[in-house]
Amino acid sequence: MILVGGMGTRLGALTQRTPKPLLPVAGRPFLDYLLLEAARFGFDRIVLLAGHLGGQVVDGFAGLRRLAGRDVDIEVVVEPEPAGTGGALEVLRDVADDAFLLMNGDSWFDLDLRAFASAAAADDAWVSMALRSTSDTARFGTVELEGRRVVRFLPRGAVAAPGLINAGVYLVRRALLDRIPSRPCSLEADIFPALVAQRRLMGVAEKGFFIDIGVPDDYAAADRLIAEHRRRPAVFLDRDGVLNEDLGYTYHPEDLRWLPGAREAVRQLNASGSYVFVVTNQAGVARGIYGENDVERFHARMDRELAEIGAHVDEYIYCPYHPDGSVAAYRRDSACRKPEPGMIVELMGRWPIDLDRSFLVGDKETDLAAAAAAGLPGVLYRDGTLDELIDASALRMRPKAS
Ligand SMILES: [Mg+2]
Description:
Blueprint: E1 2-3, E2 24-25, E3 28-29, H1 30-40, E4 45-50, H2 54-61, E5 63-67, E6 70-78, H3 84-87, E7 99-104, E8 107-109, H4 113-120, E9 127-134, E10 142-146, E11 149-154, E12 163-173, H5 187-197, E13 201-205, E14 210-212, H6 216-230, E15 234-237, H7 262-271, E16 275-281, H8 292-307, E17 315-319, H9 342-350, E18 359-362, H10 365-373, E19 378-380, H11 386-397
Helix pairs in contact: 7-11
Bound molecules: magnesium ion (MG).
Magnesium ion binds next to loops.
């Protein structure tokens, strides 16, 4: 759930005709970056909670969108009248799961959303919030923790001192929606202080880049800062024989058997701040053994099982073609089929990748040939566990000057 209904009064004229989360950053609406973030962590159902100029959000965002290689279903709920950030949540009753991520639509906290959700899931709380330390808390809500429990929550402007701020990313339990006081009300001023008193608010201090485009200075620098912080090294992983057992045309979700250390390797790469991409030849589609739907279902199963340990794949890309295929639509040579580099090149065009610190891991010479053709080092996976191999490889790939 992303809150996109704010008035944006601190930005003056800029937000008179445009909802704040739709203001352009490097040529696209700021909200696009948040959607892409959610999608790369494997969230494929997103609800935008709109208010001020909500029609623009409906027109621009409602519907199915292909993001990070996934079909992402975006629903827009427009609140009937301004109800504050707290009152707005009430309308989510019809669409909310038992637990859901909630994010402010006008800020970006560069946070591993899967790791956060997975850690927060164990909290005995109605809301778990991501916190970030800062030198001057005055612009934000200030939070004091005892262990993971929030013992004080002060709204914006209360104190100017170093400390932890509310970074605007939450794991919310559905139970909260039944306990929202009379509308309109604010999350920061009304709901969180009440949750502190009931000992139902937890917090997790996280590091990471934070930008709030509601602040004029931040918005002015957003083009540069967001581009800078989205740029990461990438690790390209072959699928069958690297992540899961290669049973020969593996496609049935029930046949997913993770190789030892594979899921842990993905989590370790996530934690290191690398993008993780899966690049896989799926000639079984061209041979008529299974369809593209099956490939996507298999990847959805991988997503779910990775999420169980707080890990994720940023994007899966596959090549369904083969020159000897039996299905006419897929029978052809393709620049995407490894050893050709097409899939890697496509990902390089779509994501801001720091190529000097990137590499590929595969179990066949054709994987390494594809990497080489794309200008990347390749690591052959033969034995041992993937997490150990990644450890050793990442060490070797570390740039000389950093
Ligand atoms: Mg393989």
